[in-house]
Amino acid sequence: MGRVLKDGPKIGEVAAAAGVSRATVSRVMNGQSTVAPDIADRVREAAAELNYRPSTLARSLSLGRSSTVAVVVPDLRNPMFHQVLRGVMDASEAEDYRTLVAETADRTADESAVAQEARARCDAVILVNPRMPQEALEELLPQLRPVVLVNRTTAHEDIPSLVIDHAQGIHRLVDHLAGLGHRHLAYLRGPAGSISDIPRREALADAVARRPELRVDHLAGGSTIDAGFEAADQVLASEATAVVAFNDLTAFGLLARLNESGVRVPDGLSVTGFDDIELARFANPALTTVNVPHAELGRRAWQLLAEVVAGGPVPASGRRPRPSSRS
Amino acid sequence: MGRVLKDGPKIGEVAAAAGVSRATVSRVMNGQSTVAPDIADRVREAAAELNYRPSTLARSLSLGRSSTVAVVVPDLRNPMFHQVLRGVMDASEAEDYRTLVAETADRTADESAVAQEARARCDAVILVNPRMPQEALEELLPQLRPVVLVNRTTAHEDIPSLVIDHAQGIHRLVDHLAGLGHRHLAYLRGPAGSISDIPRREALADAVARRPELRVDHLAGGSTIDAGFEAADQVLASEATAVVAFNDLTAFGLLARLNESGVRVPDGLSVTGFDDIELARFANPALTTVNVPHAELGRRAWQLLAEVVAGGPVPASGRRPRPSSRS
DNA sequence: CTGTTAGCGCGTTCAA
DNA sequence: TTGAACGCGCTAACAG
Description:
Chain A is an alpha/beta fold. The first copy, chain A, has helices spanning about 10-20, 20-30, 35-50, 55-65, 80-95, 110-120, 135-145, 165-180, 195-210, 225-230, 230-240, 250-260, 280, 295-310; strands spanning about 70-75, 100-105, 125-130, 145-150, 160, 185-190, 215-220, 240-245, 270, 290, 325.
C-alpha cells in the first residue's frame, strides 16, 4: 500500500485559508479558549470548508502519546476475554482512551512479536493470559512498558500483574463435588503451556492430600469446545464420577459429547467448568462453574496501568480477585 | 498518561555511538544493501548495545503508512466475527500487515467515532456489519478511505463492499423445512437496525409468495444467545412447527430454553440457525444452519482493500459469496 | 491573544 | 557508499 495516512488538507492549508498561523488552527482544533471568538470561528469555517481532519498520527508523535491501549489476547474465541476487554474499554474510555485488540490466534511463538507491534502503536499494553515461556516473557516485558500482566506473574517487581486465584476456585469445586459424594474425579487439563493450569493442578493435589478418600485422574484436555468434545472417551474410560474441566468451553464440549452418547449429566457423570461465561448458563444441563470477575479484572488492569504511568508507587501486584462458585 | 511513546534511545544516539550519520543507521535498520558490510555491522552492534528500537510511530509518519489494518466489529461475542477476523489476519500478514480490532460493543451511536479513531491509527479499515443508519454510513465512509464494507452496501460506487447472500441461505432453509413437511414457520428477527435482517425478511416473503401453503410469523428476536432464550415463549405461543432464527446464537439460546421446557427438538419443534459457527455443531441437537464462508469473506475483504489502494479499477463490489446449507 | 521557532523520531532525496 | 538537509503533520515554548 502506498501513502495512505493523509490525503486530506493539512493544518497549513487551513491556516492559509483562514489567514492565520498553524499554531492558531491547532489551538482552535484542540478547544483552547485562548483564541479570539471571531478568529476561532473563521478557523472553524475554513476547517469545515476544506473538510480538515487533524492527523492523529502526527498529533501523537508531537504529544508523545496516542491515547490508545492495546489488549493482547491469545484467543478471541474464548468469551472470557471479551469480559476482560469490556472492563478495559469501560475504564479507559472514561479517561478518553481507546482500546485496540490484538489477537495472537493461539500462535504462542508469535506472541512476543504481536505484543511489540501492538505496543508500538499504543501507549501501553495489557497482556492477557500470555502463553509464552517464562523466560521469553521476562525478556519481553521491559520492552513493553508500561504494561500490566493478567493471569501471569513476573520477576520484574515494578511490573504489575493481576492473577485470578485459580486454586481457590478449584477448592470450591472439589468441596462441592465431594459434598455430593464424589470420590473419583477426573481433571481435564488446559492447553500445553497454559500457566493457569499449574495452580489448578496444585490445588487438586492439595485437595487430595487433605482428603485421603479422594482420587483425581489427570487427562489431556485443552481450552476449546472441541478439546472438551474430544476428551469424552478418555473421561468415560477413567470411570471417574465427576469431571473438573479446565474451563467452561471444554466443559461445554465434553457435555455436548456426553449428551450425544446418552450419558446422563449429572446423574451418570458430573461436569464442572471454570470462568462462568454466558454459555455455562445455557448448557444442558446448566454447568456448575466458578465465577471469575473478568470485567472487574479488566477495570483493575487499567487502573494499575494508570498508576504505573503516573509514576506512583509500585502497585501492590498479585493481589488476587477471589472467584466465587456458582451452580 | 504522560509521554510514553519513546523512552529508549533514538536514531541519533545510535548514529553517534556507531560514528555514522542517522541516514546510515536508517538504511541498516531497514535492510538496505547499499551499506558497507563492516560499517553495517558497527551500526548493528551499537543498536544492540543501546537496545535501540525504531519508533513505529515516527516511521509511519515519515513513510506515510503504518502497515496496519483495522477491523471494526459490532460485537466480539459473536463467533462469526472471529472467522472474518482470522481471514483478514491471514491474508494481510502475508503482506506484512498487522490487524487491529476495534469493537463498538453494540453501541451503534458510537460506531462512527470508533471507526474514525481506528482509521486514524491504521492505513485502512474493514467495517464489518455496521449497524448505523444508511445516512450516517454514507457520510462516514468517505472519511475512512481506503475502506471496505462487509455485509452492507453503499451508494459510493468506488467503495467496495462484500455481502453475504442471506436470501439464498434463507431459501435453502425454507426448502429444507418445507421438505420436511413444515407449513407454519416462525422467524426470529435480528436486532433493531440490523441490515442483514432485511434480505432475510424479503426472502421469507418471497418464499411465502411462491408457496401458498406456507405461513411465516415474524417474531422479535435479536442476535445473542440471550435474545433467543427470551424469545422461546413467543415462539411456542405462535404454534409454528419450525423456527428460522436470525443466527446461530439466537437459535442456540432458543434451543436451550426449549430443552429446559421439555420441548423436543426437532420432533416438537424444528430450529434452524444461520452462520454455521462452531457452537452449532455442539448444540443439542446439532443445529441445522447455513454455512457462511466468513474466513473467506475476511480474505476477500483484504484483497479488495489491496486493489483499491493499488488504485486499480474499482473492484466489482457486491459479489455475493454463496452460503451453503448444512444440517 | 497571536505568530514564530523549534522539535517529536524517522525516511529519503541529492550531492559529494 | 555516505552524509547533509529537508519533510512527514502537528503541538509547545516563547515573544510580541
